[in-house]
Fold this protein.
Amino acid sequence: MKFKAEVDVMPLDALLDPQGKAVTSAMGNLGLSQISNVRIGKHMTLWVDADSKEAAAKMVDDACQKLLCNAIMEQYRFVVEEIA
Amino acid sequence: MKFKAEVDVMPLDALLDPQGKAVTSAMGNLGLSQISNVRIGKHMTLWVDADSKEAAAKMVDDACQKLLCNAIMEQYRFVVEEIA
């Protein structure tokens, strides 16, 4: 079966996010000063061939820990859904 | 009222995503060759002060078009939810 996973990797809440800070202050210059606290991370989509949703989730979790997410600075979460 | 928006900005489907391609081939080296078609974009969270959910969504859409998304190469989508 084929599954699609959507992974979000974000900077840990406790860490400063300089890119997000820069964007937050740019919002003011664009007349969007009601927008605050921008934080920027990565969004990844990927396909997984697996026998079950659990097996697919296990593989995605593995991929996050080994490659996609740097646990020292980032946290991740993901959802898996069947596509075929 | 305060709203939280989650924005995903992804490379257009028609475009090559070299970063995603590199990660896809790295998956094979990690023993995760069942994972394919990785595409990598940005995930952003932000807070909006607005009178209604519609007004908040309008502002986020504005921010995406003016700053967060380069429409030539990227597409965006977002969800808004009330937090307080």
Remarks:
- Strands of chain B lie at 2-11, 35-49, 74-82.
- The two ends of chain B are 6 Å apart (CA to CA).
- Residues 20 and 40 of chain B are 5 Å apart (CA to CA).
